[in-house]
Amino acid sequence: MRRALVSLALGGALALTGTAATAEAADGTASPQLSVSETSAVPASWHFYRAYWTVGACSAEGDALGGSYYCEYKRGNDGKMKWFLYRWY
Fold it and tell me: What confidence score (pLDDT) does residue 41 get?
């Protein structure tokens, strides 16, 4: 999300300054610098992604998404047992 906002802001700035800024940004000489106060560092952790009825469906989705994941069997908000997919990011 942060990358999308930075890209959107940079794209707007380039559109306003014209082709000279576009050429300057293309060769890498003018890269935007963010200060520590402008960014918020969030430590990586396990996040719930989706619930599935079978462990196979949960594992298949985790494999398709890539990265680290695990499936946990537990009771959902509706009172039924399900497989919950968690992803690390």
Answer: 75
